[in-house]
Fold this protein.
Amino acid sequence: MSKSRAIMLGFFTAWPFLYMVLFMCSVFGIIIAGILDESRFTEPPFFFILIIPLHFLTILEVIVLMVIYIIHIFRTDQVENDKKALWAVVIFLGNIFAMPVYWYLYVWKNCRPGASDTR
């Protein structure tokens, strides 16, 4: 895999974890603001109108990333044969936590700077 494709995959791999952190901080901020000023929230905040489509797109992205990584696991020679099934299960069950680890170990460390982006 070329370095540019590895960087792009790394960005998409990091997004679900970053989104989770941003989402939790935003929700806790809204809860704390609601506790401090009860009269302010008579209807759902505009935040929820923006966050719902982003939430579903992130869920869809995680599913697509799982498919990409599981295909990569079984097509590459970088992962030892006896660890391929284990990595597939780890990616499936621990997705947003396991995918960055797999990306670093098997995609980033093995990307070729001069490779073409045709594959």
Remarks:
- Residues 3-37+45-108 form one domain.
